[in-house]
Amino acid sequence: MQDQLIPAAVWQRVSTEEQRAANQAPDIARFAEHHGLQVVRTFAMDDSAWKDGGGPEYRTQLKAAMDAAWRGEFKILIVWALDRITREGAEGALRLIRQFRERGCTVISVQEPWLNGTPEIVDVLVAFAGWMAEQESARRSERIKAGIARRKADIEAGRLTGHVGGRKPGSKDKRPRRTEGYLRRWEQYRAA
After folding, report:
1. Is 61 inside any structural domain?
2. Which of 38, 71, 79, 153 gets the most CB atoms within 10 Å of its CB?
3. Residue 55 lies in a domain
C-alpha cells in the first residue's frame, strides 16, 4: 500500500519590488516532496506583513488561508520563513500559529526547523524568536536614525555637501524611482 500524501498549502510573501515570491518556490517544493506533503493550494502575494497588521492583499490572503484551513482543505501550511507570514513579534506569531492550530492546521517553516516541533516547544521558541526579531528591528531602526543624524551633522558642519536623504526639499520631480540598479546589484550579490 502506497503512503498517502498529506495535503498542504504554501504561503509565499514578498514585500519589495526587488523580491520575487518565485524565489521561495524551489526550496518549498523540495521541502514538501521530502516530507511527503502534497501542495493543494498556494497563497502568494507581494504585500507587507508589517504595518497595521499587513496590507490589504496580505489581510485578504491570510483570511482566505484561515478559512481554507477551517474547511479542512489542508493540514499543513508551509512558509519559507516565519517572517514571511508575520512580523508582529512574539505575540503576533504565537497568535497566528495558534489560530491555524485551532483550525486543525500546523504551520511549518523551510528555514526554521525548530518551528516544526511539538506545540509546547514551538510556543517557547516562537516567543523567543519573535522577541529577537523585534530587537533586531529596533536596532536596525536606531542604526538608520544614527546614520541620518550623523550625515545631517556633517552637512551642517560643512564636512559633506548634499542633502540628508530622499528627494531634495522642494523637488518638483515626483516620479517613482527606477529600481533596476538595485535589482542588478542584488542579483550580482546573490551570484557571488
Report:
1. yes
2. 79
3. yes
Q: How far apart are CA 137 and CA 105, in angstroms?
A: 29
Alpha carbons 15 and 159: distance in angstroms, whole number: 36
Residue 174 resides in a domain: no
* Domain region containing 76: 6-132
Q: Specify the length of the chain in residues.
A: 192
Overall domain count for the chain? 1
What number of other Cβ atoms are within 10 A of residue 80's Cβ?
23
CATH code for the domain in which residue 107 is found: 3.40.50.1390
115: cell is 518551528
pLDDT in tens, 97-139: 999 999 999 999 998 888 777 888 888 887 787 777 778 778 8
Cβ–Cβ under 8 Å, residues 57 and 47: yes
- What single letter denotes the amino acid at residue 111? Q
What's the pLDDT tens digit per position in 152-170? 888 888 887 776 666 666 6
* CA triple 93-6-71, angle to 5 deg: 65
Establish if 150 belongs to a structural domain: no
Residue identified by cell 518551528 is 115
